[in-house]
Amino acid sequence: MNQAKIQEAFESFLRERGLKLTPQRMRIFERVFATHEHFSAEQLFGWMREEPGDKVSRATVYRTIGLLAEGRFLESLDTGNGELLYEHVLGHRHHDHLVCEDCGRIEEFYDEDIERIQTQVAKSKGFVLRHHSMRLFGTCPTCTKKRERAAKGGAKSSAGAGG
Description:
Elements: H1 3-16, H2 23-34, H3 41-50, H4 58-70, E1 74-78, E2 84-88, E3 96-100, E4 106-109, H5 112-124, E5 135-138, H6 141-159
Helix pairs in contact: 2-4, 3-4
């Protein structure tokens, strides 16, 4: 789905709620769909402050993110650090996430077998699956290597400390 069609869908979503696509909402919408990063509401607010254009308040950023999430234009991702991250999802294939608990790195992945099993489980339990989100938490390869180096360094220093 191209951005013009997504914008039409967002305008329609707003009209159904008696709201208008204001210049501030439009700026937020455009910025959200211009990035392929996961971002927090505060990051988005920072982008709005740094970039030229109509002034956008923090409250407008939060309210617009809420509307975009409610309309399923954005999905939230709770990485467990106390701040939700968002990503736009329309026009993108469904995917799940690996989250590094050390550095916060997020890796997206899609696995046919996992998708099939989730569908089978839902069906076996009598659920009609509408959508899902899977987050796997662990340590990324870079942080794993750092941990291993730190553990080796600690073992060397404690081995030589007895002396």
